């Protein structure tokens, strides 16, 4: 199988087909695991906010306007989660993150934990994107030696942004299938 993270040459029929419900099952499992992780954090005394993104995009520098050099992973969350996110999110307090990922049917399913240890607050966001899109943002991250996480609502309102100097855990490794 080709390394779709670098070349992006997946047969369109393969990308759209989900005959056995692999994508649906993987998304359901991702959300279930996020809730289990949140419950573990709550049992440890943390405030845990869980959010399933309605859309996750890989954003590269060449996708935006001329003066827009943003790149990274963008999570679009439902409006009914916006207040909960903004109440819990303090970009200055988030000092750690963890990523839990699996790849199924050429899609990346992942949960990012944004941890604020001092307040014992964690925001977990589940997202899914096509593996073939990861190559461009990897190049941006290598060049800039950083990567960003963006959280927006469906109407495009930015709720938060984080810069990650240690960006490798956010992206699938080369050769991931």
Whole-angstrom Rg: 16 Å
Q: What is the number of domains?
A: 1
List segments where confidence is low: pLDDT < 50 over at least 5 consecutive residues: 1-10
Give me the secondary-structure category: alpha/beta
**Assembly of the depicted chains:** single chain
The averaged pLDDT comes out at: 86
Number of helices: 4
User: What characteristic shape results from the CA principal axes?
Assistant: globular
Strand order, sheet with most strands: 1-6-5-4
Approximately how much helix is present in the residues? 25-40%
**Main pleated sheet:** 4 strands, mixed
How many β strands by DSSP? 8
Share in β-strands: 25-35%
- End-to-end distance, in Å? 8 Å
N-to-C SSE series? HHEEEHEEEHEE
Helices and strands in order, then pairings?
Layout: H1 12-16, H2 22-43, E1 47-52, E2 55-59, E3 72-77, H3 82-88, E4 96-104, E5 107-116, E6 121-130, H4 134-144, E7 147-153, E8 158-164
Describe the structure.
- The protein has 177 residues and is α/β, with parallel strands linked by helices.
- It has one domain (19-170).
- Helix content is 25%, strand content 34%.
- It contains 4 helices and 8 strands.
- The strands form 2 sheets. It has a 4-stranded mixed sheet, with helices on both faces.
- β7 (147-153) and β8 (158-164) form a beta hairpin.
- The longest helix is centred in the N-terminal third of the chain and has 22 residues, at 22-43.
